[in-house]
Amino acid sequence: MQTLKASWYGFEKHWTWYRRNWRATVVSSFLTPVLFLLALGFGFGSQVRSTELLGGMSYLQYLAPALVVITALQGATFESTYAIMSAFMWQKTYIGMVATPITPAQVLYGQVMWIGSQLLARSAVFVVIAAVLGAAAGPGILWAIPFGALAGLAFSAPLIAYSARLEKPDSFTTIFRFVLMPMTLFTGAFFPVSQLPEWLLPVVWLTPAWHGIELARGAAAGTLGALPALGHVAYLVALSAAGLALGVKYFRRRLAV
């Protein structure tokens, strides 16, 4: 209970900042994904016929649940790189927090709680807009909200641990170019991964994006089986837990007083 209460103080700190500065992030958080949906779903999608590979859905309906997951992953990447380094080195907010009875692990838990809430909010707003635009294949798209947030956390937690070890932000550019971008393009969001070369598939299966997209799209189409769903969720939870454990280790090492 003490840990939860202390972590909540960290969450409140982020919420206080966000209430005053939400306008600075609204475009990247909510508007950009909607533009992708309009351009690719309505524009490019109008030239794509519904086939068996798309599960009988229109391309717009095929794309929408995957974009929920991709939106969460992109948001998780931004929240887990520069924001973490800033709190350690530039704004030094973590330093100030551990000067109180709050421990380094509780600082991390508060940060993860905040990122998780952000991912849920972004996913929910996107699903509502997609439904209004007619991009929802059915009520199952609501499952894209928790599945998108879970996939985002599975990528965010290890990334926070990695960011906590760095002294310079130089390698973040590499992550954006060579991890986030390929994960966005080649994990099934825009076309079935069965169209990729077979040698690339094991790499795709390791990404949280593929597991999240399989969950969200399967739920939206009503084709998600219980056993595959359990396997995808277990993998994402394991990634999150491993990242959190590493994060606790590096936060304690860096914030030790």
From TrEMBL:
Pfam families: ABC2_membrane. InterPro entries: ABC2_TM (IPR013525), ABC2_TM_bact-type (IPR047817), ABC_2_transport (IPR000412), Nod_factor_ABC_transporter (IPR051784). Residues 24-254 form the ABC transmembrane type-2 domain. GO terms for biological process: response to antibiotic. It is a multi-pass membrane protein. One of its GO terms (cellular component) is ATP-binding cassette (ABC) transporter complex. The chain crosses the membrane at residues 21-42, 62-85, 119-137, 143-162, 174-193, 233-251. PROSITE patterns: ABC_TM2. Keywords: Antibiotic resistance, Cell membrane, Membrane, Transmembrane, Transmembrane helix, Transport. Its main location: membrane. One of its GO terms (molecular function) is ABC-type transporter activity. It is found in: Cell membrane; Membrane. Belongs to the ABC-2 integral membrane protein family. This is Transport permease protein. The lineage of its organism: Bacteria, Bacillati, Actinomycetota, Actinomycetes, Pseudonocardiales.
